[in-house]
Predict the 3D structure of the following.
Amino acid sequence: MRSLKLAVTTSRSQTTDLVCQARQIARKLAVPYIGRGDCSLEAIAAALEVEGIVVVSPQRVACVTRAGEFFFHPSLAMLRIKELNNGKTDQMIEAMSIGPGNTVLDCTMGLGTDAIVASFVTGACGRVVGLENSEIIAFLVNRGIAAFPESDRDIATALRRVQVIPVDHREYLRMLPPGSFDVVYFDPMFRLPRRKSPAINVMRTLADPDSLERETIRLALKVAVKRVVVKEGRDSSELRRLGFNNVLGGRYAPVVYGVMDGQGV
């Protein structure tokens, strides 16, 4: 597991409820809680010599590092689900070739966008498990899923079905018996960032930076009944390095998907 040296505090509005929540989170993450007082986050980080501060505010729980603020938000998943409802195609879903009832293992969950979209497509009879090697990312996504309002039923239902597991995907894949999932999916951190996104830039400081290994793909092929799918930038050489010959994606799409058939095909 990738873990940073963290502390927990509140926003400047230090209500009793926020302090209680912050103390609970600190215990769960096994990191120190510190009262906010009039201190800046920079001062707290310097005093405790930590890499990030988990801040509990009335709006959300976020992790603040020098790169910025990271928090769970399913906005891109909501947009993609809306487009699916309007009859449009989703390139990831096409690459996975999944439908209702399928099972998906997302080995590099991150913000959970792809796992949420997959959960929407696989439906109530399907199963989506998201693995995340960063303890703080997994915590914030899990908490965000639990706190998401029920007002948008499609999104809320898809969110609730995603099972988040804080674990290194290599370790998890080794434990699984053959044919455990229909699709095993990877969206690793791109070697060259595709665009300047504040959320992704912050997530890079929290996430596992390691590139995929051929051994990992071999483990995934054992687990996948239908397909192993890897997302990469169009101009990247990573898919070629990993042995993917079948690459799917629109002619002008900035990202593409490497596909290998699983053991059940």
Observations:
- Residues 73 and 108 are 17 Å apart (CA to CA).
- The chain has two domains: 6-66, 75-261.
- The chain has eleven helices and eleven strands.
- The first strand starts at residue 6 and ends at 10.
